[in-house]
Structure formats: C-alpha cells, structure tokens
Amino acid sequence: MMFSKTQANKAVLTCRDLMVGYKNTPVLNNINLSFEAGQFTTLLGPNGAGKTTLLRTLSRHLESLSGTIHVDDRPLAELRQAELARIMAVVLTDKVTPPLFNVFQFVALGRYPHTDFLGRLTEKDREVVSHSLAAVHAENLSHREFASLSDGERQKVLVARALAQEPQILLLDEPTAHLDLKHRVEVMAILRNLCRSKGITVIASLHDVDIAAKVSDRVALVKDGAITDWGYPEEILTTETVAELYDFNSACFSHHLCSIELRGDGHRGKVFVVAGMGSGATIYRMLAKRGYAISTGVLQSNDLDCFVADSLGADCFQQQPSASMTEASLQQAYAGLAECDLVIDTGFNSDGPYQNNLNLLKKAVTDGKTVFSLRDDNRAWAIDGNNSNIIAVKNTSHLLDAMEAIQ
Question: Are 206 and 296 within one domain?
Fold first, then answer.
C-alpha cells in the first residue's frame, strides 16, 4: 500500500526539552524536535557530537536525563517493549554476528513482536520476511549464511530485519559506514523509497553531507552539546553552516551543487580560465588539485562554472545574467588576467552570451601570455601574425602535459 499524502505532516515522534547523556553527564541539551510520518531526517555533525547518544535515547537503549519523548502522543517510557518494537525498529553500528543463521532466518527475527510466545512463524510472517528482503533487493541472499555476507550485503539485510518488524519509525546509526559506493548509493535509495512508498519515518546519523543534502527532508546539525540548526536541507546546508559545523579550512560546501569542493593552495602560480556554460568546472578542479590558484570570468552568476569556481576559492569575475557582458565586468577581468602566468581557453560556446570573452583571449595573446586552447577551431579569436603563444590541446590530459612542459 502506497503512503497517502493525507498521512503526512503527522508528528510520530517528538522531543521536548530533552537532555541526553551517560551517567548524569549531559551530551546534548535542550532538544526540541518533531519527526513527521514519511520523512527522512538526517543528524549531521562531527564525531563525538552526540548523534549516536540521541539515537540510543530515542530507541530507549539509554534513559534520558531530563525532558520528554513521545511516540504517537504517548510517553516513550510508558510503552511496553513488545509494543515499542511494533512501532520502532533500530539499526545501530553494533557488530552483529549471529551463529548458524541464514539470511531468511535472521530477517525473520524481526517478526518477534508479532509472533506467539514460542516465536512460531505463520504464512503471513513468512510473506512479510520475503517482502522485506525484496524491499532491499536482497531476495537472492535468502539462503546465504549471514556470516558470509559482505559489509554492503550485511547492511541491506539489517535493514530488511528492521522492516520485518513493520515499523512506523526506523532509526539508523551511520547506515553507510564502511560501504563501497555502489552499496552506499543503493542503501540510501532504499531508505528514501521506504519513506515515500510506506510512509516510514527514517531518522539516520550520517557523515556524508553530500548525500544528506540530496536525500533528506529535514536535517539537524549537532555540535557543542546542542542542536545548532534544524530544518530543510535546502535552507540549512549553506557554505557557512557546513564550514562551521565541521571546522573546514581547505574545503567548501557548495549550496547550489550539494557537494564539497577541495581548495588548492596556489603554490604553483595563477592561471586564468576563460570559460562558461559548464566548460570550466572540471578544469577548475584539475587545477586546484595540482596547486594552481585560479582566476576566471566573465561568468554569469547562475552558471555552473560560477558555482564551482566560488566553491574552490577562485577569483571569479561575474555579472548578473544578461544577453552580453558589460564593459565594467570586462575591465575587471582584464585586471585579473594581468596577474596570471598562464591562460586556458576551455572551448566555451562563443556564439551566445559569452562571445565577448573572446576579447579576453585576444588580450592574453597581445600581452604575450601563453594560452592553452581546447577549442576545435582557434580562428574564432586568433590574431594574425601573433599566434605563436597559442598552444592547441586535445583534452585535459594533453593540457596537463603541455602545462608541465613549460613549468
């Protein structure tokens, strides 16, 4: 049964003035959060910030130090264990190594809140187990020994066991830890689909800001003993908040790209990149990795190249989107060009709004700067009689070789 929109916006788990910690030692204070049906909420923060402590308190593995937790408007402390198990499932980072269980038998353990005193499985229970394995694309593993599984396979099976409980709420602590890229993407896609198709409320701690920005309906930022921010990732995950959360120095989170860019130190000199319409993004990253400082322009402020250049800390000469660049923008770019040792023509489309950027290339040639061009036909901007400092390159690897040859 698909999750109905009429079921959304219902708070299934709430925390009010909650304090969590160990042995009367607070880890997080003054937590006031509401988790709604069918939403994916991510807890983000550095190691030791208290994400796991909060999850263990919400799952009743730890007692709260003060405040309240309500599940469906009922105090968490008043729910019997079997009753809670029918509402909430938990996948923590504890190493699970059950002896002599195959995968189907292990996932069937999730049915314990629904079975009789002897734990006997009915036909319905077996159907739920099979459907749970299918939900995580693990039907082919059902007869495998659990102990023989890879980390990625094991994580999917742990999620399947949790689904077999048929919970309203699923709590996960670092569900993608130690997984390769394929399984990391697959597990996150499975969890997001559970929210959409079954209306399960997923609350997960993650370290991967990029993934959190793409899959979360809400994010909570955890640091310095508190929830420092809470809300939509599109609003909360800005360059400034992520840098403050993780104390970034040489990296920058791009709000527009939902990704982290690693900045170079510029020790190999400065390069001016004449780009536009996404033609410069990979070249900026290539230069930053190899220690070049970057200037670029003139770019429209909504261009992909502009977002990447800003994240890498480049001197980016830009203007508001318009049909053509202004003379003031071009003069600023000329000044930036004068400070650079080398120039790169990315082969940007010169027939549209960036046609005046050809003037930057002509200026570079006139000033005697070495220009590396990825353009198929340099006659679009070549200057008769003074083209000896234009070096045509076929691709980025050829560009790197050519740059190394003159360093």
Answer: no
